[in-house]
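Duplicate of earlier report; LysR substrate-binding domain-containing protein input re-posted below.
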Amino acid sequence: MEFSFGQLEGFVAVAEERHFGRAAERLSMTQPPLSRQIQKLERAVGAQLLDRDSRGVRLTAAGEAFLVDARRLLALAGRAPDLARRIAAGRAGSIRIGFTGASAFGVLGRVLNTIAGQLPDLRVELSEMVTGEQVAALANGEIDLGLARPPFDTATFASRPLHRERLVLCVPARHRLAGAGPVPAAELASEPLIMHSPVKARYFYDLIVRLIPVAHRNVVHEVSQIQTMIWLVAAGRGIAFVPESATRMQIEGVAWAEIDGLPDQPVELNLLWSRESTNPALSTVLAVLE
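Output:
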């Protein structure tokens, strides 16, 4: 089936005017070429779309059905150039964002709300990944933007800070430190510890080892996800060091305590992207998240 948009426009005009003369005038053309357009369209469709008589024109049943799709096709054609321009300008299309599980505790929602508010026509695709997976996905072109933990290869990736927060202590609800004031980091060395994986959660592992005198003989579990750590604490398996945003999780059986002697906001989350990205939406998203 082959037909032109000119034939569709002619058909819609005749269908709406119910008169070839008025339709031709509306399209700034004469009636004979309009009649030929409709005849070619009917041959292409393989069905009679209009009944013509001395009183005017009416749609056949096939014509009524075809009119719906003809209007839809013309509307799409009318929007296509504008859509192409908006995609080229980064205001439409899609962007693929990778995020760490911990960034979902408030930060991710704020990012998505900002994008939706400023770029309502941009589709966002989400993938939960630890930082190492995000780095690989950015390098392979599988995602466009990451919410990741440093450090990064600055030759390959560009980044900028997105969020900073405190490190806090998660303990079982009946633990002696539950509800206590700021706890000196040195007092925690002998506690059973739910620790971040040195492989899959390397950022938090390195951060905690640098800031707190961890006794590795007291590490009872090593996990990659903060949610898992908190559930293990709730089960009484030990204590854990988590970013303050994790306190938003309402998990029964845990309590939170401040840790004395730490830098104010040592936990950081960055926007991360490949310097070779060709997605025009990336620069637009970075601008609205500035």
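The chain is about 40% helix and 25% strand.

Merging into the original ticket.
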